[in-house]
Automatic annotation (TrEMBL):
Residue ranges occupied by any Ribonucleotide reductase large subunit C-terminal domain in the UniProt entry: 158-697
Compositional bias (Low complexity): 899-915
Location of the TSCPD domain: 748-848
Species per Swiss-Prot/TrEMBL record: Streptomyces solincola
Name under which the protein is recorded: Vitamin B12-dependent ribonucleotide reductase
Gene3D superfamilies in alphabetical order: 3.20.70.20
Disulfide bond as UniProt keyword: yes
BP GO annotations: DNA biosynthetic process
GO molecular function: cobalamin binding; cobalt ion binding; nucleotide binding; ribonucleoside-diphosphate reductase activity, thioredoxin disulfide as acceptor
Catalytic reaction list: a 2'-deoxyribonucleoside 5'-diphosphate + [thioredoxin]-disulfide + H2O = a ribonucleoside 5'-diphosphate + [thioredoxin]-dithiol
Signal peptide span: none
Family designation: Belongs to the ribonucleoside diphosphate reductase class-2 family.
Classification of source organism: Bacteria, Bacillati, Actinomycetota, Actinomycetes, Kitasatosporales
Stretch list, region Disordered: 1-21, 870-917
Amino acid sequence: MTETASSPARGTRTKGTKAGKGLRIERVHTTPGVHPYDEVVWERRDVVMTNWRDGSVNFEQRGVEFPDFWTVNAVNIVTSKYFRGAVGTPQRETGLKQLIDRIVKTYRKAGEDFGYFASPADAEIFEHELAYALLHQIFSFNSPVWFNVGTPQPQQVSACFILSVDDSMESILDWYKEEGMIFKGGSGAGLNLSRIRSSKELLSSGGNASGPVSFMRGADASAGTIKSGGATRRAAKMVILDVDHPDIEDFIKTKVTEEEKIRALRDAGFDMDLGGDDITSVQYQNANNSVRVNDAFMKAVEEGGKFGLRARMTGEVIEEVDAKSLFRKMAEAAWACADPGIQYDDTINHWHTCPESGRINGSNPCSEYMHLDNTSCNLASLNLMKFLKDDGLGNQSFEAERFAKVVELVITAMDISICFADFPTQKIGENTRAFRQLGIGYANLGALLMATGHAYDSDGGRALAGAITSLMTGTSYRRSAELAAVVGAYDGYALNATAHKRVMLQHADANTKAVRMDDLDTPVWAAATEAWQDVIRLGEKNGFRNSQASVIAPTGTIGLAMSCDTTGLEPDLALVKFKKLVGGGSMQIVNGTVPQALRRLGYQEEQIEAIVAHIAEHGNVVDAPGLKPEHYEVFDCAMGDRSISAMGHVRMMAAIQPWISGALSKTVNMPESATVEEVEEIYFEAWKLGVKALAIYRDNCKVGQPLSAKKKEQEKAEVTEKAEETIRAAVEKVVEYRPVRKRLPKGRPGITTSFTVGGAEGYMTANSYPDDGLGEVFLKMSKQGSTLAGMMDAFSIAVSVGLQYGVPLETYVSKFTNMRFEPAGMTDDPDVRMAQSIVDYIFRRLALDFLPFETRSALGIHSAEERQRHLETGSYESPEEEVDVESLAQSAPLHRETPAAASPAQAPAPAPQQAHTSAELVEMQLGISADAPLCFSCGTKMQRAGSCYICEGCGSTSGCS
């Protein structure tokens, strides 16, 4: 029997009710008698977040307590987004312990109250394991859990909602109200409008109906006014229309027409930027639009046939259209403005576990949650990089057993949350408790694939992704069957048992047929096979606690809170990252997965250093010294010259869809040069490959983007330049600034080094200022002929003069290391075993002798002792010379004098002052525009996360949680 609830609806199952003896919880990470908090080092941090546009402080809380291994960005986001209580009051949370305790203690108590655990000891293990996993960023619940659980306010745990609307004014007005309440709470909702009769049908009174497109206008205005959670970002919503609805063409062109309006108004001088004063006059901008197509339509497209549009009231065909022509209009609209997306109805419902309770008609805003109308789904995502075992020598494995145990823990916690959760409407509360939909997923897939030496668009990469996904969902349903034995199957299971078991067999069959590729994915497939066998066996015996188990969500804010390099199933944005430092300042770093990938591919440390230095300077691997061209694809990213193809994204979606209960939040990015025909191919191939839903985005297809903001900046710069010219013309006296040469004293300390490079012998004398670094270099080549000796003399004089005029040594090092010419090869220096030229050797030696550890480490230059230490401990630093990031931040002005392009980095190098996030850094380094909006909170460039955007600076999202 379905549980009843009032609104807001709370779980009402009788306290302690259970069908079995309770779960035995196994320790995975924790130690008996030791709390997870006692095993880490805690420190106090000051969180001060500013708006980069005007310098104003957006958020400030000082003295917050976090583990020392948490990154600055993760601390900032968790503190500003998830801590509860007014800042500056005693009620305000001041550390991660309070936040985690607020959640895990609530979950433990609910688990005990509702009979989940076999004993108090098992409940304690559950609490400690859950705390450990959150503390160490192994997984994260979706944002509403962090916001609401354990607080006096309604304990909403779901981020995804599906509503419904019928063909009546009462239902339509209820839709507006319910959607508004969800937006007010900071979440998003989606629904299918296809029940509303078309504008080509008559009302009972005799007049023509308005049609769903007209009612979309009212809902869009409501969403734009309420926004999301009272924030300045737009609300997250999805509207869907079936392809056989008579108003489908009007629906398809809604956003195209508005985009033309935006262009006309912009050209007339109106402010049509995203967030501009005049953009609010444009309609249909607050929702993602998707067309729900069926197999009959897609086959008609394939065969070039006709397709019937059906009346909503009678189901009769009232108009026939050319299927190819309609499909073409969809592709043209998506090419022009990125909407509509596409959802494949028959594929979706083929994997539906509860068809006897109703069809799957809708989805949440990002299209990953698909289930019954008037339901919700709470999400959690695992950080895949936490399960990669890497010895630093290229030997890697994915810890399938530990991964499965964490999945069991998380699924148990997620199901417990439904027992005490509140919901925005009574209908959603009743249906969610009756069907208990869960959405476990993961983040950092792109980083994992690169770290393991797999190209994102490769058979090996897809095999590993598929194996992990199969293991995750198989383990989830196995735990769901075990929970059913303890606390009962979901209320709707009895009616849907046959269909549910059929879908489990479909998952298991797909697992059996999957291709095994290498030593990484094969053991994971084996563990997944065992899990699915248990699912079939236990499901037959116990039924299932949950009608749905998994989705792949965007993991926007929570991905940043877990310090993930990549969100959801997305590839890496770029190879160079932007990193904030404790105490202020920032750095650019080469993605830490790059060295892991190179070791996996068999490269030696000297080669890795050279390749990483090349990436830091150029932002890509093309022509990197020693890197084989066949390995370039491993380092392909979402942006740049070697960006992953659109079909590569689709193939990855198809590789994991068979083991996801719901769907995948993914936008397939296409270059600006992409054609309408290519959009058609993407939509058609995705259907053929069994993908449930996707959307495309062609670069620069939107007008309301920061590109127009840049245009305004250019116009402002032009005005400023004209003013400066006028001033210059009026000023007769020109003030000239010259650098001043600082000569060395007569007595100076120095080092003389003998060296051999490729058989060529030489001597280098490097003299220093008594207290201020290198000041001159003399080079003497032994028996190498007058020309080379003369050129090296001249070169050393030029370098010495430059040093005395203030050119930083690291600038010379960054410019001349990796320069290739003969003589080159082996050296007699144990710290620099290989040199690509004499110049390459000289500046590597100078860096080792005169640059501090953190600076030369940033340039990818390490001594033999440091490289050995890295192999043994994973760190180049000795215990007594651990890098003090606060000191490093204070020394940033020295580095910032160095041009950004002249700062190769393996670990950190100073980031350009103009960049505030990785997206902006990519723009500067690759010379391209990341076609994404600016963050309303802090003014920085956002980056795509699934179907939405996430601000790396402050964690704000454009609609996803």
